[in-house]
Amino acid sequence: MDKLSKYFRDTVEEMRYKVTWPSFEELQKSAGLVLIGSLVFAIVVGLMDVTFESLLKAFYNSFR
């Protein structure tokens, strides 16, 4: 049990004193970049989906 409590004490100490936390402005910039990147990725995947759907429909309709 001593090892477990020492582990948690060491973890709390490290999180308080040894971790460099980003500032609020840095967090906002990072969140904005993630949002923009996610939107771009969603648009690209959506365009690929529409393109492949139309290609497959054209391919299947060529056998009718």
Automatic annotation (TrEMBL):
In the record, which residues are listed under signal peptide?
Answer: none
Q: Does the keyword Transmembrane helix apply?
A: yes
**Coiled-coil spans in chain:** none
Q: Which residues cross the membrane?
A: 31-52
Its keywords, alphabetically, are: Cell membrane, Membrane, Protein transport, Translocation, Transmembrane, Transmembrane helix, Transport
Q: Does the keyword Transmembrane helix apply?
A: yes
The record describes its membrane topology as:
Single-pass membrane protein
- GO terms, molecular function: protein transmembrane transporter activity
Instruction: Quote a single Gene Ontology cellular component term.
Output: plasma membrane
Annotated localization: Cell membrane; Membrane
- Which terms does the UniProt entry file under GO BP? intracellular protein transmembrane transport; protein secretion; protein targeting; protein transport by the Sec complex
Extract the Pfam families matched here.
Answer: SecE
Q: How does it assemble?
A: Component of the Sec protein translocase complex. Heterotrimer consisting of SecY, SecE and SecG subunits. The heterotrimers can form oligomers, although 1 heterotrimer is thought to be able to translocate proteins. Interacts with the ribosome. Interacts with SecDF, and other proteins may be involved. Interacts with SecA.
Function according to Swiss-Prot or TrEMBL: Essential subunit of the Sec protein translocation channel SecYEG. Clamps together the 2 halves of SecY. May contact the channel plug during translocation.
Q: Which family does it belong to?
A: Belongs to the SecE/SEC61-gamma family.
Listed name of the protein: Protein translocase subunit SecE
Whichever gene encodes this chain, its name is secE
